[in-house]
Design brief:
With 307 residues, this protein is an alpha/beta fold. It folds into 2 domains: 102 residues, NAD(P)-binding Rossmann-like Domain (Rossmann fold, 3-Layer(aba) Sandwich), CATH 3.40.50; 154 residues, NAD(P)-binding Rossmann-like Domain (Rossmann fold, 3-Layer(aba) Sandwich). Helices cover 35% and strands 16% of the residues. The protein has 11 helices and 12 strands. The strands form 2 sheets. It has a 7-stranded parallel beta sheet, with helices on both faces. Strands 2-1-3-4-5 form a 5-stranded parallel beta sheet. Bound molecules: D-malate (MLT). The site of D-malate has 8 residues, from loops. D-malate binds next to loops.
């Protein structure tokens, strides 16, 4: 009898193809599914029927899944670390450029000139306002990377190619990961030391009890004045009240994040994106393939990978 996979989000066809239709039925509703396959759907313990043997997420973070409850019920939770790392790294590159140049303000200004048909007038107007959009360069600036896992290490290497100095901090860095990392990535002894010397700080860690609210008032108090904070990890890592205080005080020049946060929307010193770090065709395929293969390997062979 075919196994039933409850699919709670759009999952790329290339991933679903790893679950042959002769052996697997895939649908968004089943009463007694064998497994759950999802992306960002917020799953509660009550949503997991008794029949479920495994949950697989096509993505790195598992904060939308009740992992502790799954563990207590003996249900492995699979994720796909590294499968979307390149996509996130590329968006962080965009974040660095948005933080250093007046790109957003410049685009907004040009859009406001809609309807101006006289080319000479358009040129004069833009010339008169150009100085308002002046930025700075990334070359020679310091990027602090907090978390040097699959995404953080790619971000560190990318920043080196932009001519930035890179300093990293990761108390849980494995020996293998440390060997893989370029020797040009310097290490900060403490998070405060990284915050104090970085012009740009990029966060790359999961939400855990130890990281929730990690960027707090104490840390933001030692930030290098005029620094820019990039958060393409999870909103919960930054204490929002402390962040607003640092922005209001002007010590933090800009906050760029991949999540909408109601009290930050509309601020000139904040750029928010709709959680699109992993939203590329390639990353969606990679994540879906890895999640589906893990699920299949578990259901058919009992193997547990990335759980
Ligand atoms: C992740 O944890 O990898 C991302 O949240 C993936 C996604 O956007 O689905």
């Amino acid at each position: 009898m075919a196994r039933q996979i409850l699919k709670l989000n759009h999952i790329s066809a290339k991933g679903l193809d790893r679950l042959p239709r002769d052996d697997y039925e895939i649908a968004s509703e089943f009463t007694h599914p064998d497994a759950i396959l999802l992306r960002s759907h917020k799953l509660s313990a009550d949503d997991i029927p008794e029949s479920v043997l495994a949950v697989a997420r096509a993505g790195a973070g598992v904060n939308n899944i009740p992992v502790a409850e799954c563990s207590s019920r003996g249900i492995p939770v699979f994720n796909t670390p590294g499968a979307n790392a390149n996509a996130v790294k590329e968006l962080v590159a965009a974040g660095l450029l948005l933080g250093s140049r007046g790109i957003i303000e410049g685009i907004h200004y040009v859009n406001k000139l809609y309807g101006m048909t006289d080319m000479a007038e358009l040129h004069r107007t833009l010339e008169a306002h150009k100085k308002e959009f002046k930025g700075g360069e990334l070359v020679g600036k310091t990027l602090g990377v907090v978390g040097l896992g699959a995404i953080g290490s790619l971000v560190a290497e990318m920043a080196l190619t932009l001519g930035m100095e890179v300093v990293g901090f990761d108390p849980a860095l494995s020996v293998e990961a440390a060997w893989r990392l370029s020797s040009q990535v310097k290490r900060a002894d403490t998070l405060s030391a990284l915050f104090a010397r970085s012009d740009y700080i990029s966060l790359h860690m999961p939400v855990l009890d130890s990281t929730r609210g990690l960027v707090n008032a104490e840390l933001l108090a030692v930030i290098k004045p005029g620094a820019c904070l990039l958060n393409f990890a999870r909103q919960e890592i930054v204490n929002e009240g402390a962040l607003v205080d640092a922005l209001n005080a002007g010590t933090l020049r800009k906050y760029i994040a991949d999540f909408p946060a109601p009290q930050l929307i509309g601020r000139k010193d904040v750029i928010l994106m709709p959680h699109i770090g992993a939203s590329t065709e390639e990353a969606e395929d990679n994540c879906a393939i890895m999640a589906a293969e893990q699920l299949r390997d578990f259901l058919e062979n009992g193997n547990i990978r990335n759980s």
